[in-house]
Every structure is written in structure tokens, then in C-alpha cells.
Write a structure and sequence with these properties.
about 45% helix, alpha+beta, GROEL, domain 1, 15 strands, about 425 residues, 14 helices, GroEL
Amino acid sequence: AAIVCVAVLTLCLCVDPQIVDAVLSLDEGLDIAMVGIKKVPGGSVTDSFLVKGVAFKKTFSYAGFEQQPKTFVNPKILLLNVELELKSEKENAEVRLDDPSKYQSIVDAEWNIIYEKLELCVKSGAQIILSKLPVGDLATQYFADRGLFCAGRVAQDDMERTLRATGGVVQTSVHDMNPSVLGSCGRFEERQVGNERYNIFMQCAEAKSATIVLRGGAEQFIEEAHRSVHDALMVVKRAVASSTVVAGGGAVEMEVSRHLRQYARTIEGKAQLLVNAYAKAFEIIPRQIAENAGHDATDILNRLRQKHFKDPEEGKWFGVDISSGGICDTYESHVWEPAANKINSIAAATEAACLILSVDETVRNPKSEQPQQGGGGGAPMSAAMGGQGMRGMMGGGRGGPSGMGRGVRAFRGKGGA
């Protein structure tokens, strides 16, 4: 676990700027769905990189794919949900011939249908053809001969990001297509990443998008990095969308606690105890931060209380410094959190506490209080044997009552022992 934590820390140092760039490259809506995260085993974490566009793993291809061009500038993109493959119809089809000489016309018709589809794709003016369904070897060779790029079996999420980024429209038929259904991008290329090849669409005009390619040797690290990057994307999105930020490291909680303690002095009666307890609860955050970092939480908390009380103006942004094990101005140290996050977390915690305190009666389930049978939760062995234990079963020892012991001796005696 410690090794994974160190690896994730290294990932943060390398990928954090890329995460910020990925969010800033989006449109005003900041749709995180337009940021793809691709995991490529192999290499080092420092090999992770950001693609300002759409990138997905090369799909399964047939013979002839190597002859297709792999780089385009300002290409037109055709998105299909059509199968471009010559297949024999085995179900829901029946052909009756009264003349064997007509069989060739049936075979020719099958070829004409697939060639018509391919010709319509070429006439659409697209240089790149993507389909959710298979693109067979015949279509692959056909497009290669005409200098076009094609890819079949494109995943649903990759197709969705591509159509939103390029402005194309997925077609369920190749007939009656017009130029308005085609997408476009500034540049397309197929690039080698580790042991895999990736199709990359860059400079998309319709909707800005980004793809983060994560590298790493261990599968456990890549999975952990994936979760960390996704969480970081959500945090950066919230920070960009929010108009205000506050200092982190427990500084806000300590300042709120100080204000509540001052307010409690102006209250008479038992309500003062409630406000003081509420103020003390806020100190849990900086205490937990210090403990997680392996520092003396009590000493740090005392220093924070003193700083916030003696210097309310200059010390209001002081929080836990996990690097030195002391305190520092976290606002000047660029440890920030969106103000909306703090407001929501405080409101949620307060509502949860009020809900628990409002419970004035509980219902007990008698079954849950009974000891479980077996596994050490049942009655002791001696109690199950009537209190005699094993000695009672074996004849009670020397001079004891008759039991299993004498029965065993009698049984052995029959054998002449």
C-alpha cells in the first residue's frame, strides 16, 4: 500500500498540470465526459501525456489496413452504424430458382450491394470512415486503394466523444447522405503508444475535448491512478466553475471554530455548551490531516488555536503544513479548495448531526442480541454435554460413572485385545 501511495504521489507531480490543461481545454460547460482517460500498460508514470482531442485504441483491422494513410490534415469524417462486410445471409432468407443459370445473378447481387455501400461512402467526400459495426477485409482494401482511412467496431463512448468533438452525425444508412452529416478536425494521425496504436483526432472545432493517456508498469498502479485522475478532474472542474476559493489544510475549519467560540460567550444557558461542542467538531479536520501526515496532531492543533486567536486578521488562513509538521499560511502556499465544496460539506455534516440527535427512541431487535450458533458463538462444549465435559463421556476418569470409556473397552475386548 505504501508503494502505491508513493507511486500515486509521483503521478500527481507528473499529471497534475495535464489535468488542469485538460479541464481548461473544454468548452464553457466543462463537460467532463469530453475528457477521456486511456490506460496503456508499460513504461513509466512520467510517460503519461495529454492529447488535446479525441484518442482511442486502434480497433481490430483486416488485411490491407497497413496500406491506408495514417495522417490527414483537415479531414472530413463519416460516422456510421452500418456493417461494411460481405456476409452470406443464413437466416430469414430464402431464394428459389427455377433455372440454375440464374444462380450467378444472385451471387452478383450480393457483391453489388456491398460495392454500392462502399461507393456511396467514397462519394460522400469523407477521408476517415468510422463505424460501430465491423468493417470487413473487402471494405478495408477498397478504402486503402482510394487513400481513405477506416476503422470498425469503435466503442460506444469513443464514438460519442468523436461525434461531439467533430460535429458529425452517426448514420444508420449510407444512402441519401449530404455534407452536413460529416464531421471535421484539424489533424488526424495514428500514433504508437507503448505496445498499442492509437487513433488521435486533434484541433476539433465543434467541441473541445481532451484525452489523458496513463502509463505505468503494474496493473494495480494504473487502476489506482485512473481513480485518482478522475477525482482530480472533478475537483479541478469544481474549482474552475466556482467563482471563489478558500484556503485548505484545515484553515477554514479553525477560523469557523474561533468565530463560534467567540459567539458562544455571548449566549446564556445550555445553548452555550451546544455551540462550543459544534465549534470543537470543526477541529476534527485539521487534527485528522495532521494524523494522516504522521505528525503530532495535539501540538499542531494548539499552535493553530493560538495563531487564529492572537492574530485574527493575519492568521485566518493558517492551516496544517504536512511538509514540515507545523503550520503555515495555506492560502499563500496555494493550498486552495472551492468555497462551494466547503459550504456543501458543512451543511451536509450539520444536517446529518441534527438527524441523529432528533432520534428520541430506538427499536431493539431481540434476534440480533442472541448468540450465533457455531463458530465459537454457541454454547460451550461442556454445557452441550450436560456439564460433564469430555471426562464424563469417557467414563468420568478413574472411578467415575460408566460412559463411552467402558463401551470402548468392551468393544475392544470382543476382538480379543
